[in-house]
Amino acid sequence: MLDYVTLKIIWWVLVGVLLVGFAIMDGHDMGVGTLLPFVGKTDDERRVVINTVGPHWDGNQVWFITGGGAIFAAWPLVYATAFSGFYWAMLAVLWALFFRPVGFDYRSKIQDKRWRNTWDWGLFVGGAVPPLIFGVAFGNLFQGVPFSFDDSLVSTYSGSFWALLNPFALLVGLVSSAMITMQGGTYLAHRTEGEIQARTITLTKYAALIMVACFVLAGLWLRFGNIQGYMISSVIDPTALPDPLAKTVIRSTDGWWQNYTAQPLIWLLPLLGIAGAILAIILMHHGKTLSAFVASSFSILGVIGTAGAAMFPFVMPSSTNPNASLTVWDSVSSHLTLNIMFIATVIFIPLIIYYTSWAYHVMRGKVTVADIRANDHSAY
Predict the structure, then answer these.
(1) Residue 235 burial (C-beta neighbours within 10 Å; 0-12, 13-18, 19+)
(2) C-alpha separations of 159 from 74, 223, 313 in Å
(3) Nearest one of 175, 282, 273, 181 to 221, comparing CA atoms
(4) Angle ∠(87,26,75) on CA atoms, nearest 5
(5) CA–CA dist 162, 319 (Å, integer)
(6) Strand pairing partners for 229?
(7) Is 201 exposed, middle or buried (0-12, 13-18, 19+ CB in 10 A)?
(8) Could you give the CA distance from residue 277 to residue 300 in angstroms, rounded to a whole number?
(9) Alpha carbon separation from 365 to 24, 52, 310, 338 (Å, rounded)
(10) What is the CA radius of gyration of the chain?
């Protein structure tokens, strides 16, 4: 059995891996949905777009479900507090996601233009809304979430839904939305050809540029704006049992930059986020769409890694009572729980990667209008 401190760090890394996996795999499905109404001008073209992700999107939901389950089991206090504070936001994500299974399954069942157009926009909502809301949530984490604990560790959220929609959070939401659109665009460009591919490449380049510009702007806002970060000023015992109230936290304009000052190599993460997006643009321009997808995936790793490295060891800071902020050290499950989950993860994550790789290998290749017309009664 691994020691408690090591498992706390491992699960911080593993949750990050699951978030990155979700953004890369389910993210490109959502990105394709976001682009659907704009790159497909006819019904056949839109069916081409849908068929590039139709066989895979539900399998990619595994990353989303596993990520949520991991947070629930590894960080129960974070799960409970976040879903209380972000209740309406998470409900909006759920409502948006409803459009995806219904849209994929029923969109092409009826030969009616209005019916199909309606579900095309439903798939757009299911693809565009979740990344935006997740980004807004991350933006609020950087500013602190208004919650506190009583002596029994029952959390109380004192904010409102509309307070979440502040300028900085919306900017981070735009970073997330553009990032996922870029990811979906690189995948769609790889799976299509002709006019659909040309439109996709053009829009994906814009999405990548918007992502880079907003990502840099968000970083400058954090550094030179009036957003204060969090720092633990008391001594932390990493081996102690979880107790988020057993520490002292201060707020400082340097709070989110202390890790970058202490470990300069971390600067490679934001550079990766920017360089990956720019490289994806260049590769798409030269027709190397698969390489562009890989570059976009590394960009996602850099962007999410940048946020995680800045906040460590904080997971969910509190603006109401900074001492109640949830960290890697004091919001986790028991030693036994983390160890059992780690063993299960070592077994099942490789299986997920294997069957996903196999499915993409079997259903590789271009999807064309000719394929759609030749298989008019296909599922999508």
Answers:
(1) exposed
(2) 25, 25, 23
(3) 175
(4) 45
(5) 16
(6) 252
(7) buried
(8) 9
(9) 19, 9, 39, 41
(10) 21
* Surface-to-core class of residue 255, CB atoms within 10 Å of its CB (0-12 exposed, 13-18 middle, 19+ buried): buried
CA–CA distance, 16 with 12 (Å, rounded to integer): 6
Structure tokens at 114: 């209005």
Q: Which three-class secondary structure state does DSSP give residue 314?
A: strand
Q: What is the dihedral of CA 230, 141, 300, 99, to 10 degrees?
A: 170
Residue that is written with structure tokens 């989110």 in the block: 256
Please state, in angstroms and rounded to a whole number, the distance separating the CA atoms of residues 257 and 311: 9
Burial class (CB in 10 A: 0-12, 13-18, 19+), 34: buried
Tokens of 173: 């939401």
Mean pLDDT by 10 residues, the chain (380 residues): 90 94 93 95 92 88 88 91 87 93 89 92 96 95 92 84 92 97 96 94 97 97 91 87 89 92 95 97 95 97 96 94 93 92 90 89 86 73
Q: Give me 266's structure tokens.
A: 């971390």
Q: Which residues contact 238 (CB under 8 A, 6 or more apart)?
A: 4, 5, 8, 329
Q: Where are the alpha helices (DSSP H) in the chain?
A: 4-21, 27-39, 43-53, 57-74, 76-85, 87-106, 113-143, 167-191, 194-224, 258-262, 268-285, 289-311, 335-362, 369-374
3-state DSSP assignment of residue 151:
coil
Decide if 52 contacts 213 (C-beta within 8 A): no
Spatial separation of the C-alpha atoms in residues 329 and 332, rounded to whole Å: 7
Q: Contact 356/25 with Cβ under 8 angstroms?
A: yes
Tokens standing for residue 177: 């939305």
